[in-house]
Amino acid sequence: MHRLLPIAALLVATPAAAQDSPDPARLKATVEKLVSFGTRHTLSSPDDPQRGIGAARRWAAGELTRISDACGGCITSANLARTFTGKRAPNGVEIVDVLGFQQGIEPRRVIIIGAHIDSRVSDPMDATSDAPGANDDGSGVALVLEAARILSKQKFRATIVYAIFSGEEQGLYGGTLLAETAKQKKWTVSAMLNNDIVGNTIGQDGRRVTDHVRVFSEGIPAVEDLPTLQARRENGGEDDGPSRALAKVVDGVAAAIPAGLDVFIDRRPDRFGRGGDHEPFLALGYPAVRFTVATENWNGQHQTLRTDKGVAYGDTIDKMDFAYLAKVTAINIASIRRLAAAPAAPSGVTIAGALGYDTTVKWQPVEGATGYRIHWRRNDAQDWQKSADVPATDQVDVLKDVPVDDHFVGVSALGADGAESLVTFAGPG
Ligand SMILES: [Zn+2]
Predict the structure, then answer these.
(1) DSSP string across 189-231
(2) Where are the alpha helices (DSSP H) in 36-162?
(3) pTM of the predicted structure, to 2 decimals
(4) What is the CA(115)–ligand 1 centre distance, in A?
(5) How far is 98 from 60, CA to CA, in rounded Å?
(6) CA 289 / ligand 1 centre spacing (Å)
(7) How far apart are CA 252 and CA 266, in angstroms?
(8) Are 54 and 42 in contact (CB under 8 A)?
(9) What is the C-alpha separation between 187 and 160, in angstroms, rounded?
(10) 2 CA to middle of ligand 1, Å?
(11) How far is CA 392 from the centre of its chain?
(12) Cα(92) to centroid of ligand 1, in Å?
């Protein structure tokens, strides 16, 4: 049965934004290309034109250049390199991160979206066997390149850094290299989104989970010194560190995407006992989260390609779901759109009001803010419940009949188009 739609409805049904949606076919083509390098092991050949991590990195850098050409040179590519030595790189290996910088109005304030290009099999030192790394982490690299294609069509306040890491499987070397570079260059890192294993929906148990993605975050910053930790213990805020605030933003952004995925705010820095490239950023005090699929198939991770007792082991492309990967990509893009359009999050946010019924909130001014949003919630709630906007000239506000004993408070900065920064949790003055 056909139903005639009025012209206007047809026009609404095919908005320009549809062309800007992440494309499952293009994501698949990227993963296929990455798999075609045979292995992308960190210790594989950096020079071979066809096989190994060097060829894969050069291809990825070429993609960033191609994307940049299409936006009039809006992305500057750069390689970051340093030799690392460790248990899984005993003779030392040159780690090369492939980076693309999409400069914003604030060149030194960055939002990083990253994934690792290196792959491995069962033996972490085996640099020659085929290691397709389709999902771990071809999926993440495809997501980063797709985000660059789409976000490069717009201009932002913050600088976006597209990061393709190496050496993750040998010791989080690529993440460490970029995090330490950010510190050394005194960048303000407003957010770091790590995407690692983001493209499958069938778990090891055969069950398919297509409705959500996990976003891991720390609650209490790894870098907090003892006095700050003691103050947090005294005043609360274990669920309100900058990384948790970032996870909450991602959750809110995802909820607004039609037919998108739910975000499972996984309240620990990473999966139990495991890690990823966001952790070097956490270690230096930057807000960072990890995106990972809802259900993992460990037979497809870090496994030598083989069939054993009827079970196919190995990180192959047939185990992936590109429609799902496109949805995870859309959440990353929407999160960056918001945070890169917004000013930096306020600093120096404090509350006072003991022995009274009102709470006084103070904060430091933020460059480019057109206003501030005060958020508060009762201490028995996890999500912000109420908010009030104040003009850019204000750096103090009194919340009437909001007793400080029973409420948590935070402040965000607003941009010209209403884009909102992360919420900074208010501590003692
Ligand atoms: Zn990985």
Answers:
(1) EEEEEEE-S-S--B-TTS-B--SEEEEE--SS-TT--HHHHHH
(2) 53-70, 139-151
(3) 0.95
(4) 8
(5) 7
(6) 14
(7) 14
(8) no
(9) 12
(10) 47
(11) 29
(12) 21
Ligand 1 centroid to 176 CA: how many Å? Answer: 15
State the residue for tokens 């030392």: 92
Q: Which helix (H) or strand (E) holds 27?
A: helix 24-35
Tens of pLDDT, residue by residue, the chain (429 residues): 444 444 444 444 444 454 589 999 999 999 999 999 999 999 999 999 999 999 999 999 999 999 999 999 999 999 999 999 999 999 999 999 999 999 999 999 999 999 999 999 999 999 999 999 999 999 999 999 999 999 999 999 999 999 999 999 999 999 999 999 999 999 999 999 999 999 999 999 999 999 999 999 999 999 999 999 999 999 999 999 999 999 999 999 999 999 999 999 999 999 999 999 999 999 999 999 999 999 999 999 999 999 999 999 999 999 999 999 999 999 999 999 999 999 999 999 999 999 999 999 999 999 999 999 999 999 999 999 999 999 999 999 999 999 999 999 999 999 989 999 999 999 998
- DSSP tag of 134: I
- 427 Cα: distance to centroid of ligand 1 (angstroms): 35
User: Could you tell me the distance, in angstroms and rounded to a whole number, from the CA of residue 395 to the centre of ligand 1?
Assistant: 43
Token code pair at residue 117:
């290009």
Contact 174, 84 (CB under 8 A): no
- Residue 136 C-alpha to ligand 1 middle, in angstroms? 5
Residue with tokens 């497809």: 300
Kindly give the distance from the C-alpha atom of residue 195 to the centroid of ligand 1, in angstroms, as a whole number: 8
Determine the residue type at 336: I
Distance 138 CA to ligand 1 centre (A): 9
Q: What's the CA-to-centroid distance between 171 and ligand 1, angstroms?
A: 11
CA of 31 to the centre of ligand 1 (A): 14
What's the gap in Å between 209 CA and the centre of ligand 1? 20
Measure 381 CA to ligand 1 centroid, in angstroms: 34
DSSP 402: -
Tokens of 388: 């009030």
Q: Which helix (H) or strand (E) holds 31?
A: helix 24-35
Report CA(43)–ligand 1 centroid distance (Å).
Answer: 16
Going from the Cα of 284 to the center of ligand 1, the distance in angstroms, rounded, reads 21
CA of 10 to the centre of ligand 1 (A): 42
How many residues are given for the chain? 429
- Residue 410: its H or E element: strand 407-414
Dist. CA 64 → ligand 1 center (Å): 21
